[in-house]
Amino acid sequence: MGNTKTRASHKRVPLHPVLVGELKQWRSESPYQAGSDFLSPSIQKNGSQSLQPDMILKRQIRSALADMV
């Protein structure tokens, strides 16, 4: 984990056990599984950077929602 701006920024966030299980499954299927790899790696950057949240929203979430309508 990298440095944060303030001590308050460096704290644990509780996650529901179901979500933890889903995230572990996601990681197990990712080509980037090292502890230092991002959970949502950029394929174009060979996992060296995380996907940008706005790109996830635009490409995956909004696309999935449009398919549901």
Question: Could you characterize what this model shows?
Answer:
This protein has helices spanning 17-29, 53-68. It has 69 residues and is mostly helical. It has one domain. The radius of gyration is 15 Å and the shape is globular. The model has no long low-confidence stretch (mean pLDDT 82).
Shape summary: globular
**Roughly what percent helix?**
40-55%
**What is the domain total for the residues?**
1
Report the β-strand fraction as a percent range: under 5%
- What is the radius of gyration? 15 Å
Strand pairing plus helix content: what structural class? mainly alpha
Q: What's the rounded overall pLDDT mean?
A: 82
H/E element sequence: HH
In short:
The protein is mostly helical and 69 residues long. It is built from 2 helices and no strands. Helix content is 42%, strand content 0%.
For this entry, give a set of tags.
69 residues, mainly alpha, 2 helices, 42% helix, 0% strand, globular
What are the SSEs and their pairings?
Layout: H1 17-29, H2 53-68
